[in-house]
Amino acid sequence: MSDSEPGSPKTAAVIGAGIAGVSTAMYLQRDGHAVTVFDPERPGSMTSYGNAGLIATYATLPTATPGILMKVPKMLMDPAGPLSLRWTYLPQLTPWLLSLVRNSAPDRIRRNALVKSLLLNRAWDDFRPLVEAAKAEDLIYAGGMLRVFRTDQAFEGMKARELDLMDYTKRSYELLNADEIRQMEPALEPIFPHAIYSTDSRNIRNPGRLTEVFADHFVAKGGTIDANAVTDIARTSDGKWRVKTDRAENVFDAVVVAAGSWSRRLAKKLGIRLMLESERGYHVMIPTPEQGLNRSVHFGEEGFMMSPMESGYRISTGVELAGIDAPPDYRRIRRAVGAAEGFVKGLKVEEESIWMGRRPSTPDTVPILGGVSRMDGLYFATGGAHIGMSLGPTFGKIIADLVAGRDPGIDLEPYRPDRW
Ligand SMILES: Cc1cc2nc3c(=O)[nH]c(=O)nc-3n(C[C@H](O)[C@H](O)[C@H](O)COP(=O)(O)OP(=O)(O)OC[C@H]3O[C@@H](n4cnc5c(N)ncnc54)[C@H](O)[C@@H]3O)c2cc1C
Fold first, then answer.
1. Do the beta carbons of residue 59 and residue 387 sit within 8 Å?
2. Please, which pLDDT band fits residue 89 given cuts at 50, 70 and 90?
């Protein structure tokens, strides 16, 4: 990278102000670098705004397992099911889908889960310093995550599909019976005989606000936020990076692309092919019931999550493959959430707001993290998909280590941005 020594202060551009970009900016700033974050949207207002708020240390399972793939045709036909596809988008999606299917082979699933678990194992250790620095402790609690099942069949199916992988990747969990569920969550209707409890996951009461609080802290410490979209990135003749917006051009020692689902477009300008698709997901906010839940609860048969948030209950679900730009289709989530009324005592499914977000997803479900060969000073921090909120600070810490020339403490080969 340029002519500055490893470890010496540098100028750095971070593209994207979601949890990945803002956490990276904070970690770079802690090393004394002069950091500018580019984003035309408010920090934390895109995908990092509306997720379920779990620091999901349990989540090593990939999107596609052989069991799930068998169910795809039925899921696509179900108008309230969690999976949907815009058929007009299928031609563009095909390479990614084929790679997803290749990655559903049992040996790939185990390898990819292990690779993700190495990041998840350190997620809270990397989160905590940022939460403490930004004095955002009130936005986090250690509630874990409960997945409940009404039927023996769904519970046994989950066990057959997932427990072996949970054990292989050393996730901590407990299997609970109806009595134990009732003790943990008295507000649930007594219709769930089975649950799996992920003990060490943490919960964010408002992920959008947490990202915003991080960004405010970054600015208070002298960081810059430039509210313009980056239109181009190019290498200068002396090995630095020119970052262009419609308003200006600036040169930096280092550039980090953390633009979520939009990162693929920026990578293309640099001649790098990212296998990155937008896995769109939805939420509906409803009023907090009188007797509340103590943590996020996932309903196994319906496939949606209910999370107590700072202002109301968030029901989130959905994997819609339709590209970045297609308008939202709220019909599925609206059909799905009706079922929630019978699950929690006194719950009223009255829609207060509805939202769609775009998970940046790779077909191997492994994030895109690290530098690019023969492009010193260029880094990527994206591809967090279903665990992108959990991993933002880990992305940031690892990128800061690379920029500083420190050992990031992890072999980054599996996450290479130029692996396709
Ligand atoms: C329904 C749902 C539930 C979820 N639940 C969880 C959960 O419980 N736990 C979890 O860990 N994860 C969860 N996720 C996933 C998580 O929300 C995402 O992986 C994560 O927020 C991605 O963060 P990001 O910073 O990469 O992207 P984003 O938050 O999307 O931020 C990317 C930013 O880049 C900006 N940008 C784009 N192009 C440019 C450009 N050219 N120039 C400048 N800026 C640009 C965008 O404006 C945007 O602000 C969920 C997602 C969904 C949809």
1. yes
2. confident
CB 307 near ligand 1, within 6 Å: no
CATH number at residue 338: 3.30.9.10
Which pLDDT belongs to residue 6? 61
> Among 26, 27, 39, which is best to mutate for testing ligand 1, by the most ligand atoms less than 8 A from CB?
39
pTM of the model: 0.96
Distance of alpha carbon 160 from its chain centroid, rounded? 25
91 band by pLDDT with thresholds 50, 70 and 90 = confident
The CA distance from 160 to 170, in Å, is: 16
Query: Which range of residues forms the domain containing residue 100?
Result: 60-104+140-205+276-361
Q: Per-residue DSSP letters for 234-267?
A: EE-TTS-EEEEESS-EEEESEEEE--GGGHHHHH
Residue-wise pLDDT tens digits, 240-262: 999 999 999 999 999 999 999 99
Q: Is the CB of 389 under 6 A from ligand 1?
A: yes
Å from CA of 262 to ligand 1 middle: 10
Per-residue pLDDT at 166: 95
Q: Measure the CA angle with vertex 77, ends 75 and 81; round to 5°.
A: 45
C-alpha 208 to ligand 1 mean position (Å): 10
Token pair for 204: 């964010």
In a domain, 15, yes or no: no
Q: Does residue 257 fall inside a structural domain? A: no
pLDDT of residue 81: 66
286 close to 368: Cβ distance less than 8 angstroms: no
Q: Does 344 fall in a domain?
A: yes
The label of the residue with tokens 């009461």 reads: 205
263-272 average pLDDT score:
96
Distance CA 122, CA 153 (A): 34
C-alpha distances (whole Å) from 269 to each of 139, 263, 274, 400 are 38, 10, 11, 24
CA 269 to ligand 1 center in whole angstroms: 21
Overall number of domains in the chain: 1
Assigned domain for 233 exists: no
Give the orientation angle of helix 123-133 with respect to helix 207-220, to 10 degrees. Answer: 60
Q: How far apart are CA 210 and CA 394, in angstroms?
A: 16
